[in-house]
Structure formats: C-alpha cells, structure tokens
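Researcher: Re-running this chain for the archive, since the previous output was lost when a drive failed. Same request as before.
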Amino acid sequence: MRIGIDVSMTADSKTGLPSYTRSLVEAMARVDHENRYTLYPITWHSLPPNHRDAVMPRARNFRRAGGWRPRRWLEHEWHHGDRRRLLGPPPDVYFSPFHNAPDRWLPRLVCVWHDVSFRVHPEFSTEANRVYCEDQFDRSLRLAHRFVTVSHFSKAELVRAMGVSADRIDVVHEAADPICRRLPQAQLPARFQAQIGGAPFVLYVGSVEPRKNLATLVDAFADFQARTKHPARLAIAGGSGWKNSAVFEAVDRHGLRDKVHFLGFVTDDELVALYNTCALFCYPTLYEGFGLPVIEAMSCGAPVITSRVASLPEVGGEAVCYVDTPLDPKELSRALQRVLEDRALQQRLRDDGMARAATFSWDRAARETLAILQRVVADEELDPTDVRMGEDERGIDEGFYGVERPPEGSFRWMQRRGTLQLRARPQHAVLRVTAASPLPEDEVTLVVRVGGAVIGTGLLGHAPRTFTFELPARLPRTGLVTVELTVNHVLPPAMKGEDRRELGARIFAAGFRN
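Model: Regenerated structure tokens:
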C-alpha cells in the first residue's frame, strides 16, 4: 500500500497539529516496515520556505515527494511547472492531518480534525482563521472518505456541530512524546534561573490565546497570592497567539510582573525539564479536542489541575484535579492552594498521573491509524460512481475550479477540458451529465468520452440541462474509468471582465446510472 502524508507544517512548528503529525509519522516508521510512505513537505497548495526541515524518518520505506532537488529548481517547478509531475502520482491513500483537504482528486483521502472550536467558539479565533477552517471543512466534507479525530468528545462535536455522520469518523487518541518522562535529577533550565530562581512555580504550556483561559489563571493566581502569601511563581511557556491582550492587562492590573513570567517558545529538553521541576501544572482551558499538554505533564510526574470541560475528563480520568467552573477565578484559586499546600495530594497526583499517561501510546496510535488507512483502501464501495457538485466530489480529477452555489444549484466552472475518475459497475447502462453554457445562446457543444471513447455530444443551454448517454457494451465495468468532458468553445476575454479563468462550461453533476 502506498500511503501519502502531508507533513508541510512540521517544518514550521513543534506545537499543536505539527507536533501531532511529527509524533505520528515517527511512530509509523517504528511500527510499519512494509507499506511505502511518501511524505509531502511540499503540497499542491503549500511550499513552505523551510520545507527541508519537515519530519523525515530514516526508514527505507519512507521517501520525500519532490526528492532532495535544489530549492531553486523546486520553487520554479512549483510556481511555473506541473505540480503533479513535481509531486508524483497520487498514493493509494492520502492522510491530511492539518485541518485541510487538498483540492484535487485522490483515490482515497482521510482528514484529521482535532476539534471544531472555530464553529463552536468563533470568539476564540480570528476571523481569517475561522473563514479558512470553514472553507477547509466544507472541502473535507465533500472530498474525504473518512475522518479521524483524537477524542470521543471531538467525534461527538463533529456529529453535533458539523453534521458529519458518526459512522464516517474514527477516534485515535494522542499520546505524549517518548521524551516526556520522569527525571528525578531534572533541574530548571539555566536561562530561566534568573526569572524563576529557586521558588516553586505553577506551569502552563500552550499558546497565549483566549481559549486557554489565561486571564482567569492570572486572576486566580493573584487571589491565591493575596490570601496565602505563598512564594510560588507562575510560568507561562508558549508562543503568543491572538486576542491575548487581556492576559497581559491582568498581570499589570494585579502588579504581578515580578511573579508571572512569560517564557516564550521552549526547546523540547527545556519543556521536559519544566514539567519535571514545576510544583504543579495548570491547564485551565475552556475547549480542547484532546489536551496534549495534560498528558505530557502527567508523563513527567507533574501534579495537574485542569478544567472539567470538553475532552479533558476523557484524557485525565481520575488522575488530575478538576475545576468545574473554569471561568471562576475563586474556584481555581482554591484548587491552586489545595494542591500546593498538600504534599500527600501532590504525590498521589504524580503517581496516578504517570500511570494514566502510560495508557496512551503513539505506537498504538500509529497502528490504529494504519488499520483505518488499510480499511479505506480495501473498500471498493468508496470509489465514486457519480459526482454531485458541492456535495460529494470525490471523483473530480482535474480541469475544474472551485464550487459556486447560485440559486439553481451548486456547480463548478470547467475549463475547456475536465476529467473525472468514476467506477463503472456491471449494472450501469448510461452516463448522465447536468451542465450549462456560460453563453446565453445554444452555441456550446459538450463532448463526452468514457475510457477514451466518445459516447455522445450535447448542445448546452444557458440553464442547466441533463443529458443521458448510453454506455457501449465494450466499456470496462470494473475499476475506475476516466470520464472526459470537453467543450468546443471557451468564453472570450471580453465577456469575462476581470475573471482570468478559462471558462468552458458549468458542470452540476455527472455519474453512471443503471
């Protein structure tokens, strides 16, 4: 089996989705030496400037799409050449882990969606990110054969908020990176000594953004300090996200600049050391698809306080201290005090946390993901027999533009030539095509080929018309066949205005019928 995986974002970051992808790919290299993997540091829609830094296991059955050619050559081919030639033939199954779906035909496509916070909590996102995620989810819904998500909570969210059928979704839990482990002799990283010194500290790891609820954490920490005069510090490790001014304002409002320390991005070794040396780890998030920092902290033996929301109870089990009302700083303050002042509770949380974290494994996640990919490739029922624009477009190959949704129904503009990959079955007798012309007069002729042979023509009108073409007896009725649609006319530039696309016809649907 030929497996393709988008790894383009792993070149830029080791957090969030890139961290998930890197860990999963490395685990697949450990557990699977039989299947052939093609990793895509460059994709049909993305050419990261530092693509050479993308994850690439040293395993004989793994290769890079595009090879190791000089950067200038790759950039020229990507911008001016044929990206299909650059990236090679499609794999048997393509695994897309970054909340997106490639806008091209692939024999099998599996998309990962960790959460749908962009839909459920749009206030936590920028408008640009929300629009991007909505567009990509719409594409995934139309093109993906299966969805993978990282918790049963997220599966329920995909069903409830996004309308995905539950039987189309698989759950594969994440795990902590193997480097996250208990280090009894760990010391605070040297570059943080001046900030934190020898004081006990509460640690948060993650981006600084509204969903993480850090303004409440600062308020709670201030209340805890005022009530107890405890010497603890608060260390926030992670990059600056968006809409985070309230966090810094809370620090200034409480006069905590000498007690709250923003560490920024940390290295892997620094992160493990921080987990091992913190007095406790606090993750007061409001919404998570999984909550990877919770597993990482437990793996390192840190006592954990987190919110009893979303996926966190599924991840933490009975091994963490929960806050039932995460937006209440008083409740969070009392939880901080309870753990920081109770040595026996700290030890219980350390022991239970390490035991709980050990039940999650990247190697198991890799095997479960591989089993999903194998089932998808083996299922011939997933091969498309028809394409309904805007609904189920898994047969589209090339020659089409994005979906448009006018009142008369979703369609795609086709260039002068468009192709589909559809499975003809023994019972199929005809091909039906619904199409329209960009011209107001009946001047455009549609020519239809199946398996390279012309099976008919039709005169297109400006309104959608459905044409039925009989299939020749000699047409193969097994496997995918190429359906080619061509027109004898392309809309002249004078009629397109500023639209630079080659507009040949509007295609609403095409498919085999009995």
